Amino acid sequence: MNNIFKNAVQISKIICRAKLSPGDIAVDCTMGNGNDTEFLCSLVGEKGKVYAFDIQEEAVITTRKRLQELNLLARTEIVLDGHQNIDKYIKGKVGLVIFNLGYLPKGNHAITTKKETTIEAVQKSMGLLEPNGIILIVVYSGHENGKLEKEALINFTTTINQKEYNVAEICFPNQINSPPELICIEKV
User: What is the pLDDT of residue 109?
Assistant: First the structure.
């Protein structure tokens, strides 16, 4: 048996597997190199749909190429825009929204997600969730913008109405080097 509490990314994948079924709609709000987009595509199947957002053209090109090679492009809508504009592209309800905050791995570390646009995107994502839908936010606080983002997210999530959403924060206090944390917002 494998450990469940290895890290925030692994836990987010366990939750994705539990929540998504073939035919569902999911959103990757920070596509990066396409890892989460590919994973979500595998879970929603041929009849499902994955929307993937990023502000960097490099991320879009890398992800599009990856999905094309894996024959997954038909079930994906790749969007070159900030996740705070999610409501301009998605009109129906979604089962799952995932954020993997911070900067593009192997990319320009000066370009990071920002607390203002992330909070706006999370608020809009909450309005898009179907009942029992979930938002997963992997937070990296090992850099300055990440610290600010984490603080803003914690402050925001403590104000969410518990009759409408369950909120959980999973952290790893005994791990070194500011390990990522996971914030979950589940619609009741």
Answer: 73
